[in-house]
Design brief:
Blueprint: E1 6-10, H1 17-28, E2 32-34, H2 41-48, H3 55-71, E3 77-80, H4 86-95, E4 100-105, H5 108-117, H6 128-134, E5 144-148, H7 153-168
Parallel strand pairs: 1-3, 1-4, 2-3, 4-5
Helix pairs in contact: 1-7, 3-4
């Protein structure tokens, strides 16, 4: 299965964006980009210190992701990006109008448990509440699908592929 679309794997921290994103890209036969790699150093320093980013902090990050997605238009790709607010997704769509969103969803307890067990990531579990408070789920007029994150990474990826296939029809 391949897609000419750029798929944005979105959701709060700990939902598995950086695990599912590469698996989904592999299944779709397209390149993967990690949104965290697009953050300026100042953003990483703020998050590492436990300080939530402001919308102003996120603008250059979203623009860099949008530029990558624009460059992949018609070729396909997968990028992980929290894209928690509608305004953030609108900014990505302004740069790359054909992006499709896969919103990884799960309950807070499951996500907090996963965050507590991961290593080498700069996002502390203390910021999870702010992530859920900020989250604006996909709206009916946004092209995308919700995918539950219970189960193994392969099971989640299978659900994402099936949901995207259904969306394409």
């Amino acid at each position: 299965m391949t897609t000419p679309h750029v798929v944005v794997v979105m959701g709060v921290a700990g939902t598995g964006k950086t695990t599912i994103g590469p698996l989904l890209a592999d299944r779709l036969g397209v390149p993967y980009a990690e949104a965290d790699d697009f953050h300026p150093e100042a953003n990483i320093a703020k998050m590492s210190a436990g300080t939530p980013l402001t919308d102003e902090d996120r603008r250059p990050w979203l623009d860099a992701i949008g530029a990558w997605a624009h460059g992949r238009a018609g070729l396909g790709g997968v990028v992980s990006c929290s894209a928690l607010k509608r305004a953030y997704r609108d900014r990505l769509r302004a740069a790359a109008p054909d992006v499709v969103f896969v919103h990884l969803t799960g309950d807070r307890e499951l996500i907090e448990d996963r965050m507590a067990h991961r290593q080498g990531h700069f996002m502390p579990t203390a910021l999870l509440d702010s992530q859920f408070a900020t989250l604006q789920p996909l709206q009916a007029d946004e092209t995308g699908v919700g995918v539950d994150v219970t189960g193994s990474p392969d099971e989640i990826t299978d659900r994402a592929v099936t949901a995207l296939d259904g969306l394409a029809r």
